[in-house]
Amino acid sequence: MVMGPTHATSGAVAWLAAGGLMTAAVGYSQSPAEMAVYTAVCAGSALLPDLDVSGRVFRNRGGATAARVFGVVSLFLAECVEKFSLWVYQLARSKKDPRRRNGHRTFTHTIVFSILIGTLVSLLVLQFGKPVVLAVLFFTLGLAIRGLMAEWVKRHGWWVTTAGSAAVTVIAFAGLPPDGYPLLGVAVGVGCLVHLLGDLITHHGCPLLWPIPIAGRRWYMVTLPGDLAVKAGGPFERRVLLPGLTVAAFIAAAWQVPAIQDLLFSFFTESAAPEAGG
Question: Where do the H-state alpha helices sit in the chain?
């Protein structure tokens, strides 16, 4: 088992929670349509770094969850990303960095990549507008569907992901606000960062701070101490982490409903009133 569902769910939680905090702290709120789109994009982008795991393109097999989203098309893309990541690794490795035969958990698993991809998406949306918005929505929504409904999609095949992503993209685009989705690049970048945090708690870790040298290595794998690290696809992830994130997602989603916010604010205000009066 892989961490696809956990990554996607954590991406959704991150955007929902951040949206709630922004509303409470500075009064900036997103419309329901914007919140839904950005949450899905962030959830999908939380699988994006794993496009550096290639498979057998012409056999339509192998690769990470992200590589199997659109069949041979996404597998071919993953093959390109993996080879590019390996090239960057070899180009920038120090003498203490080990030799590698693949590019998994290298360039796409760094803060630098998260910032670059988020900035690139923002600039492309600003320059070309709706066509880029459509492309980003289609791709990241496909990743979100594949991650959040992994077992169902696995049974029915990649065409279900493609059809579902296309349908949701058309609906989302039909309700596109006049100024588009200005936070689209931010949602992509945040999703990638959430992925890194998820990999950071595993035994293998990820080169989060590249290219900053640590202990003489540019590709230093940042991770938790051995006793605290989580096994990817292990019992803790399946029985504790994923269910906990799912509950957190429902709570964060409920918090976006104004009626629930008003109810909670009223409850805490009334509870604090007698104490203040005394």
Answer: 4-26, 32-45, 72-92, 111-128, 130-148, 150-156, 158-174, 184-200, 235-236, 242-255, 258-277
